[in-house]
Structure formats: structure tokens, C-alpha cells
């Protein structure tokens, strides 16, 4: 398996403070890695370093591109990022917003071709967005917008897809639809997926591998069953959980300590 992503000794700072320390990571092409860790542990910063949006030191290679040095267009042909907080230009329709994903593939001073339109139509159909296509993107609900922003990233036809909490605004049915769709695209076209996820059960169901960050460092990296132990989740998240061993991987259940009045 060829490596789609290599990080060696990667450090990154936000607001003048180093928040990602000495990250070493090698991810094979076509793999789904779920990136987990508490709030503020550095997941977004790592994804942004891979997308060339945050400066970092050390060595980063994403699908043969050094995101710290390459031109934006070259990076965008290799890597798509579905951001946690998308920016929607005022007055843009859903179709236009998804069409922006084709920009890195359109020749300079050129215009959208029939094949670009077909790619956009295809993702609109796969994500059931036909009824929204002509609506203003700024008038969508949070969950509808999240699916549109994923559609834009998929329309980019990247080799590496970076998802920053892709299902945080979705109901349980749309969560499954979106994650299944991304996984089927991964399998069909050797797409490499790194998804920052808070839902540890979903992270385990879809990720062949889990990488756990804590305070900017990788503290566990392995199969879901290796990474998700109740003891480790207590240590890293200060969470009281039970980990169930299920056919489709470990499931993490929060355990409520009854208050004194309920004991
Ligand atoms: N623009 C910024 N200026 C200063 N500090 C920042 C900035 N962006 C992020 N940070 C800090 O960097 C650290 C890592 O943040 P990051 O967003 O990467 O974490 P995360 O794991 O994605 O968190 P969450 O799960 O809450 O989304 C946090 O302490 C955060 O407060």
C-alpha cells in the first residue's frame, strides 16, 4: 500500500502558541483514519496543516504534495477539506457552492465543462440535494448546509479527503447516509479519508484505524479495539464509559453515575 500521507516531526502553532507537537503519521492510500481527541486537542490544527491552511514545521507530504510549499491550485487538486465552520458567500445558490469544488480542475480563464457539470449533478443526486439545488445556501439549516459542504468537497474529486466533524449537525439517518457515501467512494476510488469525529462509536465503525490526540500529541494509534478502552477514555477525556465489544467494532456508551438522591 502506498502512503497517501506522511508526517514527520510536525509541529504547528496557533496564536503564537505551539498546539501540535512532533506528530509522526503514515497513512496508506485508500484508508479511513478517524481522528479523535478531546476539545482543543489539535484535530482541526492537524487537518489544516495537511490542507496547507496552517503553517507547520517538520515534513508533510499529502498525495505527493507538500502543502506548505505547493500552490493552492495544486493542493486543491490533491486534498479537499470539509471545514467545521464553512463560510458561505452571500447570495450563492447550493448548486454554485457545490460547483466551486470544480475550480481547481477548470483551466485558468476557462469555464465549467460538461464533465464538470456531470460531477456536480452526480454528488447532488448522491446526497439527495436536488430539492435544494436552486436555493440560497445561506438559507439552509445547519444539517442541510453540512451536506452541501460535503458535496462541494466530493465534487473536488480529491485523492485525500479531510473531514472536520462531518456529521456534527446531522440527524442519525443523515449521519449514516453521509458516512456510508464517503466510505463507498473511498472503496471505489482509493480515496484516503481522515475524519475528525467526536462520536467514538461512529469513528470506530468507519475508521479502519483510530488516531487519538491529547494536548497536541498522538497518544494512541491503532485499530478501534486497541485504541478505545474504558481506561484510556477515562485518562484522556475524564469520561466514565463502558466499551461494548460489538460485531461492527467497539461501541462506547457513557455511564451515568447516579446522584446521591438517586442511589
Ligand atoms: N486562531 C487561533 N488562535 C489561538 N489559538 C487557537 C486558534 N485556533 C485554535 N487555537 C487553539 O489551538 C488548540 C487546538 O485547537 P483545535 O481547533 O485544533 O482543536 P480541536 O481538537 O479541533 O478541538 P474541537 O474538538 O473543540 O474542535 C486549542 O487550544 C485552541 O484554543
TrEMBL record:
Question: What is an example of a Pfam family matching this protein?
Answer: ABC_tran
According to the entry, every stretch annotated as the ABC transporter domain falls at: 5-240
Matching entries from PROSITE patterns are given as: ABC_TRANSPORTER_1, ABC_TRANSPORTER_2
For this chain, one GO molecular function annotation is: ATP hydrolysis activity
> Which of UniProt's keywords are assigned here?
ATP-binding, Nucleotide-binding, Translocase, Transport
Which branch of life, at top level?
A: Bacteria
What CDD domains does the annotation carry?
A: ABC_Iron-Siderophores_B12_Hemin
InterPro entries documented for this protein: AAA+_ATPase, ABC_transporter-like_ATP-bd, ABC_transporter-like_CS, P-loop_NTPase
Q: Which SUPFAM superfamilies does the record associate with it?
A: P-loop containing nucleoside triphosphate hydrolases
**What is the protein name stated in its UniProt record?**
ABC transporter
Amino acid at each position: 500500500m502506498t502512503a497517501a500521507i506522511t508526517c514527520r516531526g510536525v509541529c504547528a502553532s496557533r496564536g503564537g502558541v505551539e498546539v501540535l507537537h512532533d506528530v509522526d503519521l503514515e497513512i496508506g492510500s485508500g484508508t479511513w483514519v478517524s481522528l479523535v481527541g478531546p476539545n482543543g486537542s489539535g484535530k482541526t490544527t492537524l487537518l489544516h496543516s495537511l490542507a496547507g491552511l496552517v503553517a507547520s514545521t517538520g515534513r508533510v507530504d499529502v498525495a505527493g504534495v507538500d502543502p506548505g510549499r505547493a500552490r493552492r491550485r495544486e493542493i486543491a487538486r490533491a486534498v479537499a477539506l470539509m471545514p467545521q465552520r464553512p463560510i458561505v458567500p452571500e447570495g450563492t445558490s447550493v448548486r454554485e457552492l457545490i460547483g466551486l469544488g470544480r475550480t481547481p480542475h477548470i483551466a485558468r480563464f476557462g469555464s465549467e465543462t460538461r464533465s464538470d457539470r456531470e460531477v456536480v449533478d452526480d454528488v447532488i443526486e448522491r446526497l439527495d440535494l436536488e430539492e435544494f439545488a436552486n436555493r440560497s445556501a445561506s438559507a439552509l439549516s445547519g444539517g442541510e448546509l453540512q451536506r452541501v459542504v460535503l458535496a462541494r468537497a466530493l465534487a473536488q474529486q480529491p485523492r485525500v479527503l479531510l473531514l472536520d466533524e462531518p456529521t456534527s449537525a446531522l440527524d442519525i439517518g443523515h449521519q449514516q447516509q453521509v458516512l456510508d457515501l464517503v466510505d463507498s467512494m473511498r472503496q471505489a476510488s482509493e480515496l484516503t479519508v481522515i475524519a475528525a469525529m467526536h462520536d467514538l462509536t461512529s469513528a470506530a465503525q468507519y475508521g479502519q484505524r483510530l488516531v487519538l490526540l491529547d494536548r497536541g500529541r498522538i497518544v494512541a494509534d491503532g485499530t478501534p479495539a486497541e485504541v478505545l478502552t474504558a481506561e484510556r477514555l477515562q485518562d484522556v477525556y475524564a469520561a466514565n464509559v463502558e466499551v461494548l465489544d460489538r460485531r461492527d467494532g467497539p461501541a462506547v456508551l457513557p455511564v451515568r453515575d447516579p446522584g446521591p438522591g438517586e442511589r
